[in-house]
Amino acid sequence: MRYELLIGLRYTRAKRRNHFISFISLISMAGIALGVWALIVVLSVMNGFQQELRSRILGVVSHVQIFGTDGRLSDWRQVQSEATKNPHVIGAAPFVSAQALLTYGEAVRGTVVRGIVPEDEERVAAFGSHMRAGSLAALKPGSFGIVLGADLARALGVFLGDKVALIAPQGLVTPAGLIPRLKQFTVVGIFNIGFSEADAGLALIDLQDAQRLYQMGSTVTGIRLKLDNLFDARSVAREEMTRLGPGLYASDWTSSHANFFRAVEIEKRVMFLILTLIVAVAAFNVVSALVMLVTDKQADIAILRTLGASPRSIMQVFMVQGAIIGLIGTLIGVVTGVISALNVETVVPWIERTFRVQFLSKDVYLIPELPSQVHSSDVVTIAIVSLVLSFIATLYPSWRASRVNPAEALRYE
Question: Which of 66, 174, 216, 287 is the most buried (most CB within 10 A)?
Answer without folding.
Answer: 66
